[in-house]
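job 3f2a | input accepted
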Amino acid sequence: MATPPLVGVTTSVTVDKSPERAYVNAAYLRAVQRAGGVPVLLPPQLDRAARAELWGRLDGVLLTGGGDVDPARFG
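job 3f2a | predicted structure (75 res):
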């Protein structure tokens, strides 16, 4: 049996509550699993070394988006 791909899933962070929390809509996790992958949550608080370690192990990344992306970034 083949090893399922590891798919990083970006998370959002609460900014108006304490303690701060990273979260993701569970529908993203279910979608990765239905496609045969294993979701790996990617909290934005990871330091550079941890990010590098994770990026080297992931087979793909799902960018979940969010309301904080400036539309000017898309041209």
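job 3f2a | The first strand starts at residue 6 and ends at 10.
job 3f2a | closed
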